[in-house]
Write a structure and sequence with these properties.
heterodimer, A: alpha/beta, TIM Barrel, 7-stranded parallel β-sheet, 4-stranded mixed β-sheet, 47% helix, B: 211 residues, Methyltransferase, Methionine Synthase (B12-binding Domains), Chain A, domain 1, Rossmann fold, 2 domains, 5-stranded parallel β-sheet, 9 helices
């Protein structure tokens, strides 16, 4: 027996000290109370006023007690459930748990056969969802693109309709407006068994974005209110660009971005106390030469780690970012940028890391990048899993038994632990030169392409209920009617 | 195939070391010959293990467990095979050469070759050429396997081959070599009969000499 024995059961880092985080928190509260944000939404202004915010036209200032109360109401730990009851695909949000998945809305896609860049189309959606469903280290689904070959108002709806039947992993649903959101929700609750059943076991997360600097748009708040009213776990994630739409400094962008998220938090908790709420987002730099928002910059990982620390300090889960790249193709740059950022996301323990599979600075989605990053996430997770120290793992008796000149290959201890102590690669090649040569000298890219093709040819996701299929048809038909009338 | 031979195959694949003796006795009680047990029970199991290992579906500890299971059955049928003059896969001696104390690779090769049906005599590490020669005289193997990890000790393989020639035994055995610095070119240079780059292909190479 060991009393009061302290265990580090995984490897995590925290970048900022309590003093620094208290200072950041003070900065955010100061911004919300004295500078305020613009809210372009009448209903939200009413909700805020009633909750105790100071409303002056569109400018809303929130006293710090109200922000603290909202932070208090939002849970740190909760579960997003798989649609088919497979608990292995549930996402348990809580301290020390990092999850990964793709992002939404890239205009382009890397074609699965030709590997050329082209517009993202409807038929790409099921393929992305199937990849997510099959890859062991990808935990939630987004589509990696905006559907180009349907009516432009219906892209988000077709996305969800294409993803939902093809993965039982929880989906993070992006949408244009509340009509999309309503259609998406109708599909999700059909599968869950109605609104009550959904509220007990939510099977998707709703995603919306405020605008930097310091604006909450009408569409974003329409969607937020829809999600909060229907008790759909919510992400309210800004995408500030350091040096462009946010201060150039890491501490500055974190302060501003957190204020933008927490405006959503206050509204959401006023409508639905205790609603699961993720602060977010994508925090990175504007490259002052290329003029892009960089998805491969080290500052992205740095800012996201700082933001993760702040979120956890105030007891919120974080919508993180990683596994993405500025590279235009599947090359060394893509792998370096993607792998380092997923490793940092894993180390900082950001609760849901999205944009895995983004290339070309979020302009092009790639399931090849996604597949390679699945490997990098597995690798990272083995490290963050840490070192277990027990009598069994210390193996003093085993070492004594084997002694000098012996070996461990036949030890029961080896057989008991070699599968769980090691991570086994799917794509990285550890064979010797001769075997690698005999196998055609395949590169990481060759193996990644082969794995994508194999998964898409063979993987069978659990089907949705027949009645949900009918609901999907109905929702899409109604949406097509709606846009015809416009 | 009969049920009992299939059970033996499965037991080898699953590495049921404790069941092998009983299953082997049962097969003998059912009047299967030792040769049948080897060819139709044990070897198909080990062949399956080899395929699964190569495909990355089985791992070294599991393969060794299967090899040990096979070994447990072989202990019972080996005398019967010898009695009937039936063919066995073969006998080999293995050792790490003079000056070299690294033996994990050599141990792996030994266990893999046992799994392939060989009777393996592991004569240890830091083995002088003369000791290899003595072992060849004593055990009369079909194959000797030499291992080295150091470029400085590789040369001892050549000395061992020379010693075998001088003792007039070179024609009686096949010599296979391996270890991180060893290459096919080196093997050709010193007049060895074969080189393998890992334990699994060493077992395949050894089999190719006796079949």
């Amino acid at each position: 027996m060991r009393g009061n024995y302290k265990v580090n059961s995984g490897t995590r880092f925290r970048m900022l000290s309590d003093d620094q985080l208290e200072e950041l928190l003070g900065g955010v509260l100061h911004l919300l109370e004295y500078t305020g944000l613009e809210v372009h939404h009448e209903e939200s202004l009413e909700i805020l006023k009633k909750a105790g915010a100071w409303v002056d036209g569109k400018r809303v200032r929130i006293p710090s007690y109200l922000v603290r109360k909202s932070l208090e109401l939002a849970p740190r730990s909760f579960t997003i459930f798989s649609r088919d009851g497979n608990s292995e695909n549930d996402i348990i949000i809580g301290p020390g748990r990092a999850h990964f998945g793709p992002g939404p809305t890239c205009p382009n896609f890397i074609d699965i056969e030709s590997m050329d860049r082209r517009p993202y189309v409807k038929s790409d959606v099921p393929n992305v969802a199937k990849m997510v469903d099959a890859l062991p280290n990808i935990d939630f689904c987004e589509s990696l693109g905006t559907v180009d070959d349907v009516h432009h108002d219906l892209g988000a709806l077709y996305e969800f309709a294409g993803m939902f039947p093809n993965t039982s992993k929880p989906i993070v649903a992006w949408s244009y407006d509340k009509d999309d959101s309503a259609g998406i929700h109708e599909i999700a609750i059909a599968e869950a068994g109605g609104q009550d059943a959904f509220e007990k076991r939510p099977n998707y997360v709703h995603y919306c974005e405020p605008l930097s600097p310091l604006i909450s748009t009408g569409e974003a708040l329409d969607k937020l209110i829809f999600a909060a009213t229907n008790r759909i776990p919510l992400i309210f994630t800004p995408c500030p660009i350091a040096g462009g739409t946010a201060p150039v400094t890491a501490a500055g962008i974190i302060t501003q971005g957190a204020a933008e998220s927490w405006m959503g938090l206050v509204i959401a908790q006023a409508i639905q106390p205790g609603l699961p709420f993720f602060m977010g987002g994508v925090f990175s730099v504007m490259d002052m030469s290329a003029m892009i928002l960089s998805y491969g910059a080290p500052e992205l990982s740095l800012m996201m780690a700082g933001l993760t620390d702040l979120a956890h300090y105030v007891g919120l889960p974080l919508w993180q970012t990683g596994g993405c790249t500025d590279s235009k193709t599947f090359d060394e740059q893509a792998i370096i940028e993607g792998s380092l950022s997923v490793f940092f996301s894993a180390l900082s323990g950001g609760d849901m890391t999205h944009d895995v599979g983004y290339t070309e600075s979020a302009m092009t989605g790639s399931v090849f990048q996604l597949c390679a990053m699945d490997e990098a996430i597995g690798y990272s997770r083995r490290i963050t899993h840490g070192i277990e120290v027990t009598e069994e793992t210390l193996a003093v008796k085993v070492i004594d038994n084997v002694g000098p000149n012996g070996h461990y290959l036949r030890e029961q201890h080896t057989r008991d632990h070699y599968k769980t102590e090691y991570w086994y690669p799917n794509l990285c090649n550890r064979r010797n030169y001769e075997e690698w040569e005999e196998d055609g000298k395949k590169t990481m890219k060759d193996r990644t392409v082969a794995r994508v093709h194999e998964i898409l040819a063979t993987h069978k996701p659990t089907p949705i209920k027949p009645e949900t299929e009918e609901v999907i048809k109905k929702v899409l038909a109604e949406a097509e009617e709606r846009v015809k009338e416009d | 195939m009969s049920d009992i031979l299939a059970e033996l195959s499965t037991a080898v694949i699953e590495g049921n070391v404790d069941d092998m003796a009983d299953l082997t006795e049962d097969a003998l009680d059912e009047d299967f010959s030792a040769q049948d047990i080897l060819d139709k029970g044990l070897m198909p199991g080990m062949d399956h293990v080899g395929v699964e290992f190569k495909a990355g579906n089985m791992f070294v500890p599991e393969v060794l467990r299967s090899a040990r299971a096979m070994h447990n059955s072989m202990d019972l049928i080996r005398p019967l095979l010898a009695e009937s003059g039936a063919s066995m896969t073969g006998k080999m001696i293995i050792g790490t050469v003079k000056g070299d104390l690294h033996d994990i690779g050599k141990n792996l090769v030994g266990m893999m070759c046992e799994g392939a049906g060989f009777e393996v005599e592991d004569i240890g590490k830091n083995i002088e050429p003369e000791a290899f020669v003595e072992a060849v005289k004593k055990y009369e193997p079909n194959i000797i396997g030499m291992s080295a990890l150091l470029t400085t000790t590789m040369r001892s393989m050549e000395h061992t081959i020379k010693a075998l020639e001088e003792a007039g035994l070179r024609d009686k055995v096949k010599v296979i070599i391996g270890g991180a610095p060893v290459t096919q070119t080196f093997s050709d240079q010193i007049g060895a009969d074969g080189y393998a780059s890992n334990a699994a292909s060493a077992a395949e190479l050894a089999k190719s000499f006796v079949n």
